[in-house]
Amino acid sequence: MLKINNLHVNIENKEVLKGVNLEIPHNEVHSLFGPNGSGKSVLISTIMGYPEYEITGGEILFNGQNINQLSIDERVKLGIGVSEQRPPTIKGVKLRNLIELLMPGEIQDETFRKGMLERFNMDKFLDRNINDGLSGGETKKSELFLLMLARPEFLILDEPDSGVDPEHLKKIGAMINETLQKKIQGNELCNPYGRNSGLIATHSAVILEYVHTDKAHIMLDGKIHCSGNPAVMMDQIKSNGYSYCINCHQNI
Asked: What average pLDDT does the segment 151-159 reach?
């Protein structure tokens, strides 16, 4: 579904991504590990098409289509959705306004919306400005709620567990799993492999206690150095640090 070939990216004439290769097939969710400053957020922003990230080499393919030159809204229309690490506060725009924009009011969607509002206790945020005065966990809940309604084919999450207390983390995990569920005409697929694809960037991997990922990749200094089993790789990182990954890669 998503394939990245030898991607090089500059920010203000400084190379930050230095030949990233990544492939995420249909029905798979991958995790991206790496310390702060390793390039995880830059990769996500480049996939989404933020203009300050200049692609100097390589390509991003989504469902076989090169999206290097597409705008953010064009990528969203293709089915890519993102939850940012630090979603902005938007004065004068209420959560209710964005919900109405995403949900044009069909009966089936209205039923789904009301069910989600009740299930995740979002009614109290409907008439508040977007992310205004919310805690870290509340902000991420609000952001994920909008993604649940949009139902992107490919979900990208940038540090969904960063700055989130344990009380909110379990709820955020449930919202992510709900968003990843594939729907056909309003019905959930019974096939456990029939879920949407995604990429979850995290340096702590706490969110993986609530969301299953099929494969993990380690990013260091603007490159993906190795890939494998998420649980095994995170155990090694917790025991030995990311320096272990660097030494391991150099000795291959």
From this structure: 92
